[in-house]
Amino acid sequence: MPANTTCTLDAWLAYLEQVHPVGIDLGLERVAEVARRLGLLEGRLAPRVITVAGTNGKGSTVAMLEALARVHGLTTAAYTSPHLLRYNERLRLDGCEADDAALIAGFEAVEAARLDGESISLTYFEAGTLAALWVIALHRPELAILEVGLGGRLDAVNVIDADVAVITTIALDHAAFLGTDLQGIGREKAGIMRAGRPAVLGSRELPESVTLAAQEQGAPVKVLGQAFHWHSGTRGGFDWQGTDLEGRSLALRDLPDPGLPLDNASTALQALACSGLALEERRCRQALSELVVPGRMQWLGQWCLDVGHNPHAAAYLAGRLSAQPCRGRTWVLIGMLVDKDAEGVIEALDGVTDAWVAVTLDGERGREADELAARIEAQGGKVACRAASPEAGADWLTGELSPEDRVLVCGSFFTVAAILSWKQAKPA
């Protein structure tokens, strides 16, 4: 980007997509050097830093951490990816999306640092992560919450030492970069842990490599189902029990179901307790009752939007829909990328689906509707429509819905983003 040119956020994003030859380039040497030049490694990013890694549930866990911390009076910064409609969604400061000016200032600082001396190439994600960290450092929040990208040990976020490391789940995804060995994936994601600092493990089914890595690094662990757990409450919500840093028991009663995985809600509560925050039952109820996370079990009338795109996430969606039966039909509008496990997702959703709408996603990783429909039919599913885009599928489906039907939109961030835009464009 030319040094003395005034550029919009869109122009910066277009530039960043062009300056590195590949979209994903795992490794910390380049990122760490630019972070050092930016001064990000000289002190603490915030008095409390929580890093969240995992295959599924990261976004909802970050959102619950943020909401719970804010209702307890903490100033916050939350970094997450990818976004649905606006790049600004990736960085929230005190609950509000960062404005264009803040992000542009971050990109300018990163660009100056990477060109200061020997030029260093950064991917789109790496530049965005460093820009967000620079803005967070400038903002000086009391709590910074950082979502790891697809990896862990070699992810750009991992240049920052967290006070609490969270791992939500480990499942097969991004196989081209992480492989198909769950033990190996677990070790990679466990790389966000730090010696002497607590790690909160938010799944009962993590590979053994995660706990072994924690032992090797000297990170004390809090494991779901052991140090903390939840169970159904008497009023339709849930009760939570956990422990503080010293191992003392904590208990919260009759918390509302936020409409998100309760394993993740329980994990967020435990992570905040490990950060030293004194949890108050009344404030926790308030945060969880008011929480809405775009693209995560997000209901817009008859339409439920969820970015789930692997079998583990699809199985959770199927369970939620089974627990909320409807009088009409359940339609699934699905669009997926070619590098995702379509058969596994279809199999997980088959038992709750009456009819499918397969849609094409554009781009070099996009999957054609006909190819997706063939996989659905091979498993005995009924494909009611093949559409050239998510919007076209939604247009067709609108004419077929009865008032008692419901629609699950899933398979990709791109699918959900398209339907969100489509819904917003519709007259009220």
From TrEMBL:
The UniProt record lists the keyword Electron transport = no
What reaction does this enzyme carry out catalytically? Answer: (6R)-5,10-methylenetetrahydrofolyl-(gamma-L-Glu)(n) + L-glutamate + ATP = (6R)-5,10-methylenetetrahydrofolyl-(gamma-L-Glu)(n+1) + ADP + phosphate + H(+); 10-formyltetrahydrofolyl-(gamma-L-Glu)(n) + L-glutamate + ATP = 10-formyltetrahydrofolyl-(gamma-L-Glu)(n+1) + ADP + phosphate + H(+); 7,8-dihydropteroate + L-glutamate + ATP = 7,8-dihydrofolate + ADP + phosphate + H(+); (6S)-5,6,7,8-tetrahydrofolyl-(gamma-L-Glu)(n) + L-glutamate + ATP = (6S)-5,6,7,8-tetrahydrofolyl-(gamma-L-Glu)(n+1) + ADP + phosphate + H(+)
Q: What Enzyme Commission number does this protein have?
A: 6.3.2.12, 6.3.2.17
Q: Name one GO biological process term.
A: tetrahydrofolate biosynthetic process
Write down any Gene Ontology CC term.
Answer: cytoplasm
Q: Give the keywords, sorted.
A: ATP-binding, Folate biosynthesis, Ligase, Magnesium, Metal-binding, Nucleotide-binding
Listed GO molecular functions? ATP binding; dihydrofolate synthase activity; metal ion binding; tetrahydrofolylpolyglutamate synthase activity
In this protein, which residues make up the domain named Mur ligase C-terminal? 295-413
Q: Describe the function of this protein.
A: Functions in two distinct reactions of the de novo folate biosynthetic pathway. Catalyzes the addition of a glutamate residue to dihydropteroate (7,8-dihydropteroate or H2Pte) to form dihydrofolate (7,8-dihydrofolate monoglutamate or H2Pte-Glu). Also catalyzes successive additions of L-glutamate to tetrahydrofolate or 10-formyltetrahydrofolate or 5,10-methylenetetrahydrofolate, leading to folylpolyglutamate derivatives.
User: What protein does this entry describe?
Assistant: Dihydrofolate synthase/folylpolyglutamate synthase
Q: Which organism is it from?
A: Billgrantia kenyensis
Q: Which gene encodes it?
A: folC
